[in-house]
Amino acid sequence: MDAKSLLQLTKKPNIKIFSGSSHQDLSQKIADRLGLELGKVMTKKLSNQETCVEIGECVQGEDVYIVQSGCGEINDNLMELLIMINACKIASAGRITAVIPCFPYARQDKRGESRAPISAKLVADMLSTAGADHIITMDLHASQIQGFFDIPVDNLCAEPAALKWIKESISEWRSCTIVSPDAGGAKRATSIADRLNVDFALIHKERKKASGVDGMVLVGDVKYRVAILVDDMADTCGTICHAADKLLSAGATRVYAILTHGIFSGPAITRMNSAGFEAVVVTNTVPQEDKMKHCSKIQPYHLKEN
Q: Are residues 48 and 131 part of one domain?
Protein backbone atom coordinates (compact mmCIF):
# COMPACT_ATOMS: atom_id res chain seq x y z
CA MET A 1 0.00 0.00 0.00
CA ASP A 2 1.47 3.35 -0.99
CA ALA A 3 1.57 6.44 1.21
CA LYS A 4 -1.29 8.15 -0.65
CA SER A 5 -3.65 5.19 -0.08
CA LEU A 6 -2.68 5.03 3.59
CA LEU A 7 -3.39 8.74 4.00
CA GLN A 8 -6.85 8.31 2.46
CA LEU A 9 -7.66 5.48 4.89
CA THR A 10 -6.55 7.41 7.97
CA LYS A 11 -7.96 10.78 6.97
CA LYS A 12 -10.82 11.95 9.16
CA PRO A 13 -14.01 12.18 7.11
CA ASN A 14 -15.25 15.68 6.37
CA ILE A 15 -18.59 15.38 8.17
CA LYS A 16 -20.90 18.28 8.91
CA ILE A 17 -23.98 17.84 11.12
CA PHE A 18 -26.76 20.39 11.03
CA SER A 19 -29.83 20.48 13.23
CA GLY A 20 -33.32 21.49 12.26
CA SER A 21 -35.71 23.07 14.75
CA SER A 22 -37.74 19.98 15.66
CA HIS A 23 -35.36 18.16 18.02
CA GLN A 24 -32.15 20.07 18.73
CA ASP A 25 -31.41 18.07 21.88
CA LEU A 26 -31.16 14.84 19.86
CA SER A 27 -28.97 16.56 17.26
CA GLN A 28 -26.61 17.71 20.00
CA LYS A 29 -26.44 14.20 21.48
CA ILE A 30 -25.54 12.77 18.05
CA ALA A 31 -22.81 15.39 17.56
CA ASP A 32 -21.43 14.78 21.07
CA ARG A 33 -21.34 11.03 20.48
CA LEU A 34 -19.32 11.58 17.29
CA GLY A 35 -17.07 14.17 18.90
CA LEU A 36 -18.17 16.87 16.46
CA GLU A 37 -19.64 20.34 16.69
CA LEU A 38 -23.07 21.08 15.23
CA GLY A 39 -22.83 23.13 12.06
CA LYS A 40 -23.98 26.72 12.04
CA VAL A 41 -27.41 27.23 10.51
CA MET A 42 -29.83 30.13 10.89
CA THR A 43 -33.53 29.52 10.47
CA LYS A 44 -36.28 32.08 10.86
CA LYS A 45 -39.85 32.82 9.85
CA LEU A 46 -40.49 35.82 7.69
CA SER A 47 -43.45 38.09 8.38
CA ASN A 48 -45.56 36.18 5.84
CA GLN A 49 -44.67 32.89 7.65
CA GLU A 50 -42.30 31.67 4.95
CA THR A 51 -39.31 29.70 6.27
CA CYS A 52 -35.88 31.22 5.64
CA VAL A 53 -32.71 29.15 6.06
CA GLU A 54 -29.06 30.17 5.79
CA ILE A 55 -26.21 27.66 6.16
CA GLY A 56 -23.54 29.43 8.19
CA GLU A 57 -20.41 27.61 7.01
CA CYS A 58 -18.81 26.07 3.94
CA VAL A 59 -20.15 22.64 2.95
CA GLN A 60 -18.50 22.31 -0.47
CA GLY A 61 -17.49 18.68 -0.99
CA GLU A 62 -18.51 17.77 2.59
CA ASP A 63 -20.50 14.78 3.83
CA VAL A 64 -23.54 16.59 5.29
CA TYR A 65 -26.05 15.16 7.77
CA ILE A 66 -29.23 17.10 8.54
CA VAL A 67 -31.20 15.96 11.61
CA GLN A 68 -34.90 16.79 11.60
CA SER A 69 -37.63 14.64 13.16
CA GLY A 70 -41.24 14.56 11.95
CA CYS A 71 -42.81 15.93 15.11
CA GLY A 72 -44.13 19.16 16.57
CA GLU A 73 -45.17 21.55 13.81
CA ILE A 74 -44.78 18.79 11.25
CA ASN A 75 -45.51 20.78 8.09
CA ASP A 76 -43.21 23.65 9.05
CA ASN A 77 -40.45 21.26 10.10
CA LEU A 78 -40.76 19.24 6.90
CA MET A 79 -40.51 22.41 4.80
CA GLU A 80 -37.51 23.54 6.85
CA LEU A 81 -35.81 20.18 6.18
CA LEU A 82 -36.43 20.43 2.45
CA ILE A 83 -35.02 23.97 2.32
CA MET A 84 -31.95 22.94 4.37
CA ILE A 85 -31.28 20.01 2.02
CA ASN A 86 -31.62 22.25 -1.03
CA ALA A 87 -29.42 24.94 0.50
CA CYS A 88 -26.64 22.40 1.02
CA LYS A 89 -27.15 20.99 -2.47
CA ILE A 90 -26.83 24.42 -4.07
CA ALA A 91 -23.73 25.05 -1.93
CA SER A 92 -22.08 21.98 -3.58
CA ALA A 93 -22.19 19.57 -0.64
CA GLY A 94 -20.58 16.27 -1.60
CA ARG A 95 -23.31 14.04 -0.10
CA ILE A 96 -26.44 14.92 1.85
CA THR A 97 -28.04 12.54 4.34
CA ALA A 98 -31.39 13.43 5.93
CA VAL A 99 -31.63 11.90 9.40
CA ILE A 100 -35.38 11.70 10.11
CA PRO A 101 -35.89 9.71 13.34
CA CYS A 102 -39.70 9.91 13.11
CA PHE A 103 -40.74 9.91 9.45
CA PRO A 104 -43.59 12.38 8.73
CA TYR A 105 -46.80 11.16 7.07
CA ALA A 106 -45.66 7.54 7.53
CA ARG A 107 -49.19 6.39 8.34
CA GLN A 108 -50.44 7.62 4.98
CA ASP A 109 -48.60 4.85 3.12
CA LYS A 110 -51.49 3.47 1.05
CA ARG A 111 -54.84 4.47 -0.40
CA GLY A 112 -57.51 3.69 2.16
CA GLU A 113 -60.24 5.08 -0.11
CA SER A 114 -60.56 5.58 -3.84
CA ARG A 115 -59.57 9.27 -3.88
CA ALA A 116 -57.14 9.29 -0.93
CA PRO A 117 -53.49 10.31 -1.51
CA ILE A 118 -50.38 8.32 -0.65
CA SER A 119 -48.77 11.17 1.25
CA ALA A 120 -45.71 9.18 2.39
CA LYS A 121 -44.77 8.74 -1.28
CA LEU A 122 -45.17 12.48 -1.84
CA VAL A 123 -42.80 13.19 1.07
CA ALA A 124 -40.29 10.72 -0.39
CA ASP A 125 -40.44 12.46 -3.77
CA MET A 126 -39.96 15.89 -2.18
CA LEU A 127 -36.89 14.75 -0.22
CA SER A 128 -35.30 13.32 -3.37
CA THR A 129 -36.15 16.40 -5.44
CA ALA A 130 -34.72 18.71 -2.76
CA GLY A 131 -31.37 16.95 -3.16
CA ALA A 132 -31.11 14.26 -0.47
CA ASP A 133 -28.74 11.40 -1.37
CA HIS A 134 -29.51 9.14 1.59
CA ILE A 135 -32.23 8.79 4.25
CA ILE A 136 -31.76 7.46 7.79
CA THR A 137 -34.94 6.87 9.78
CA MET A 138 -36.20 4.60 12.55
CA ASP A 139 -39.01 2.03 12.77
CA LEU A 140 -41.05 3.12 9.77
CA HIS A 141 -44.76 2.57 10.30
CA ALA A 142 -44.72 0.48 7.13
CA SER A 143 -41.40 -0.90 5.88
CA GLN A 144 -42.56 -0.67 2.25
CA ILE A 145 -42.10 3.11 2.46
CA GLN A 146 -38.43 2.38 1.72
CA GLY A 147 -39.59 1.39 -1.77
CA PHE A 148 -41.01 4.88 -2.35
CA PHE A 149 -37.45 6.20 -2.68
CA ASP A 150 -34.96 5.98 -5.55
CA ILE A 151 -32.15 6.71 -3.07
CA PRO A 152 -30.78 4.50 -0.24
CA VAL A 153 -32.89 4.33 2.93
CA ASP A 154 -31.64 2.92 6.24
CA ASN A 155 -34.56 1.98 8.50
CA LEU A 156 -33.01 1.56 11.94
CA CYS A 157 -34.67 -0.65 14.55
CA ALA A 158 -35.29 0.22 18.21
CA GLU A 159 -35.65 -3.47 19.15
CA PRO A 160 -32.17 -3.87 20.79
CA ALA A 161 -32.83 -0.96 23.16
CA ALA A 162 -36.32 -2.30 23.93
CA LEU A 163 -34.91 -5.73 24.79
CA LYS A 164 -32.31 -4.13 27.02
CA TRP A 165 -34.94 -2.10 28.86
CA ILE A 166 -37.18 -5.14 29.42
CA LYS A 167 -34.34 -7.23 30.86
CA GLU A 168 -33.09 -4.42 33.09
CA SER A 169 -36.43 -3.11 34.34
CA ILE A 170 -38.87 -6.05 34.58
CA SER A 171 -37.75 -8.74 37.00
CA GLU A 172 -40.37 -11.24 35.77
CA TRP A 173 -39.56 -10.75 32.08
CA ARG A 174 -38.95 -14.49 31.55
CA SER A 175 -42.64 -15.19 32.18
CA CYS A 176 -44.13 -12.10 30.53
CA THR A 177 -46.32 -11.94 27.43
CA ILE A 178 -45.50 -9.62 24.55
CA VAL A 179 -48.69 -8.15 23.07
CA SER A 180 -49.32 -6.46 19.74
CA PRO A 181 -52.18 -3.93 19.96
CA ASP A 182 -53.20 -4.69 16.36
CA ALA A 183 -52.50 -7.11 13.52
CA GLY A 184 -50.24 -4.62 11.74
CA GLY A 185 -47.70 -4.70 14.56
CA ALA A 186 -47.64 -8.49 14.96
CA LYS A 187 -44.30 -8.94 13.18
CA ARG A 188 -42.61 -6.38 15.42
CA ALA A 189 -44.03 -7.91 18.60
CA THR A 190 -43.33 -11.53 17.63
CA SER A 191 -39.70 -10.62 16.87
CA ILE A 192 -39.26 -9.34 20.44
CA ALA A 193 -41.13 -12.34 21.88
CA ASP A 194 -38.88 -14.73 19.95
CA ARG A 195 -35.73 -12.93 21.11
CA LEU A 196 -36.90 -13.18 24.73
CA ASN A 197 -38.30 -16.71 24.25
CA VAL A 198 -41.64 -15.71 25.82
CA ASP A 199 -45.31 -15.94 24.81
CA PHE A 200 -47.03 -13.67 22.31
CA ALA A 201 -50.61 -12.37 22.22
CA LEU A 202 -52.55 -10.25 19.75
CA ILE A 203 -55.39 -7.79 20.14
CA HIS A 204 -57.76 -7.66 17.21
CA LYS A 205 -59.47 -4.30 17.01
CA GLU A 206 -62.59 -3.44 15.08
CA ARG A 207 -62.83 0.07 13.67
CA LYS A 208 -65.72 1.93 12.10
CA LYS A 209 -63.66 5.07 11.59
CA ALA A 210 -59.92 5.80 11.53
CA SER A 211 -59.83 7.73 14.80
CA GLY A 212 -61.83 5.33 16.98
CA VAL A 213 -61.84 1.70 18.11
CA ASP A 214 -65.24 0.03 18.52
CA GLY A 215 -64.24 -3.35 19.93
CA MET A 216 -61.23 -5.44 20.95
CA VAL A 217 -60.69 -9.20 21.09
CA LEU A 218 -57.64 -10.66 22.87
CA VAL A 219 -56.06 -13.66 21.18
CA GLY A 220 -53.71 -15.28 23.67
CA ASP A 221 -53.30 -15.70 27.44
CA VAL A 222 -52.10 -12.99 29.83
CA LYS A 223 -53.67 -14.24 33.05
CA TYR A 224 -51.32 -13.85 36.05
CA ARG A 225 -48.65 -12.48 33.74
CA VAL A 226 -46.93 -9.18 33.05
CA ALA A 227 -48.18 -7.91 29.67
CA ILE A 228 -45.94 -5.73 27.51
CA LEU A 229 -47.61 -3.87 24.65
CA VAL A 230 -45.24 -3.19 21.76
CA ASP A 231 -45.94 -0.75 18.92
CA ASP A 232 -44.09 1.61 16.62
CA MET A 233 -45.98 4.77 17.62
CA ALA A 234 -48.78 6.16 19.73
CA ASP A 235 -50.54 9.39 18.79
CA THR A 236 -53.78 10.04 20.69
CA CYS A 237 -53.25 6.77 22.62
CA GLY A 238 -56.83 5.56 22.22
CA THR A 239 -55.70 2.13 21.00
CA ILE A 240 -53.04 1.38 23.60
CA CYS A 241 -55.16 2.66 26.49
CA HIS A 242 -58.10 0.48 25.42
CA ALA A 243 -55.65 -2.39 25.01
CA ALA A 244 -54.28 -1.86 28.53
CA ASP A 245 -57.79 -2.02 29.98
CA LYS A 246 -58.48 -5.18 27.97
CA LEU A 247 -55.31 -6.86 29.26
CA LEU A 248 -56.04 -5.96 32.89
CA SER A 249 -59.59 -7.27 32.60
CA ALA A 250 -58.14 -10.48 31.12
CA GLY A 251 -56.08 -11.04 34.27
CA ALA A 252 -52.72 -9.38 33.55
CA THR A 253 -50.89 -8.43 36.75
CA ARG A 254 -49.18 -5.40 35.24
CA VAL A 255 -49.18 -3.69 31.85
CA TYR A 256 -46.33 -1.84 30.18
CA ALA A 257 -46.22 -0.13 26.78
CA ILE A 258 -43.03 0.07 24.74
CA LEU A 259 -43.16 2.48 21.80
CA THR A 260 -40.61 3.83 19.35
CA HIS A 261 -42.34 7.13 18.60
CA GLY A 262 -44.30 8.73 21.44
CA ILE A 263 -46.21 11.45 19.59
CA PHE A 264 -48.83 11.90 22.34
CA SER A 265 -51.10 14.51 20.77
CA GLY A 266 -54.59 15.68 21.72
CA PRO A 267 -56.05 13.74 24.69
CA ALA A 268 -53.08 11.33 24.90
CA ILE A 269 -51.68 12.55 28.23
CA THR A 270 -55.08 12.51 29.93
CA ARG A 271 -55.78 9.02 28.63
CA MET A 272 -52.42 7.65 29.79
CA ASN A 273 -52.82 9.17 33.25
CA SER A 274 -56.19 7.39 33.56
CA ALA A 275 -55.04 4.07 32.08
CA GLY A 276 -53.58 1.21 34.10
CA PHE A 277 -50.02 1.37 32.78
CA GLU A 278 -47.04 0.82 35.05
CA ALA A 279 -44.94 2.71 32.49
CA VAL A 280 -45.09 3.92 28.89
CA VAL A 281 -41.56 3.57 27.55
CA VAL A 282 -40.45 5.56 24.50
CA THR A 283 -37.31 6.43 22.54
CA ASN A 284 -36.13 9.99 22.04
CA THR A 285 -37.06 10.21 18.34
CA VAL A 286 -39.62 12.78 19.56
CA PRO A 287 -38.92 15.27 22.40
CA GLN A 288 -40.55 14.07 25.61
CA GLU A 289 -39.38 16.49 28.31
CA ASP A 290 -42.56 18.62 28.39
CA LYS A 291 -44.85 15.59 28.22
CA MET A 292 -43.03 13.86 31.06
CA LYS A 293 -43.88 16.82 33.30
CA HIS A 294 -47.59 16.05 32.84
CA CYS A 295 -47.42 12.25 32.86
CA SER A 296 -45.09 10.42 35.24
CA LYS A 297 -45.69 7.12 33.40
CA ILE A 298 -43.65 8.23 30.38
CA GLN A 299 -40.10 6.86 30.57
CA PRO A 300 -37.53 7.45 27.82
CA TYR A 301 -35.72 4.12 27.57
CA HIS A 302 -32.65 5.57 25.89
CA LEU A 303 -31.69 6.75 29.40
CA LYS A 304 -31.41 3.11 30.47
CA GLU A 305 -28.49 2.50 28.12
CA ASN A 306 -24.91 2.70 29.33
A: yes
